[in-house]
């Protein structure tokens, strides 16, 4: 079990413990893609790219200097596959607050 953060459109992010990949698929609504943001070193974003243009916009990300939007639910995980710490979760919350 690992601790992740979940961000759904128009909702606050929250911490959640997941048991396996199936839990993540359920959270994002299907198969997921791994994204990164230049401002979140060591933290990855898992999203369902099939929701692009269908689900409401969630928030923008910047990858390699290019800006794009995250659509639908997003799960934040540590790139090394371990649980997010309190400091990591605060970093994600600050990151999301800066997107408003």
Automatic annotation (TrEMBL):
Occurrences of domain DUF3846 (ranges): 2-95
Pfam families for the chain: DUF3846
Domain of life (superkingdom): Bacteria
Full protein name: DUF3846 domain-containing protein
Organism: Brevibacillus ruminantium
